[in-house]
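We modelled the chain as a single entity of 173 amino acids. Its sequence is:
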Amino acid sequence: MVGRIIGTIVLILILALIYLAPQGLLTKPTLEEMSAGPFQLRDLETVTMSEATNRIIDLAFEDSLLQAGWLPCLINEQLVSSVESVQVGLFCENRASGESDTIVDGDEDVHWPEEEYLIASFPYRGKHSLMLGSWKVYRGLLHEILKRRLAPGAVLEVFDTNAEQIRYLMPVE
């Protein structure tokens, strides 16, 4: 009886590994400090973490937004992957604050200036990459913060389905 239970558990773990390996389970995220920006964020709304996953998937496949250079993004104010709520919206890189955009109408834009960021990347292979990436990258960011005695800041996650990657940006203060 005990052998059968152990065999079932091992089988479940092997199946989980086979399923999650292509999602990035075995991937070690890259982490580097570099200058980036400016960034423009738009249409930010506060949602629960489970709503955020669905919203990001929806935004990731809106061709008119992607063609205009807008990517789905998430802002996590805390450096943990298990938070109650986050902000989800649109991200555009290297857009000056005076540039207008006719594709996306919405709330007031938020601009992040050019500055030094800790930047990590993780492969995007599907819905489970969102959770695995946060879990792995946040651990790496936290390790780097403790090692260098930095102040933790908000993490900006940018989901680029065309490039099949998720970028994580945290300002270095």
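As a brief sanity check on the tokenised model: The first strand starts at residue 30 and ends at 36. Residues 99 and 135 are 35 Å apart (CA to CA).
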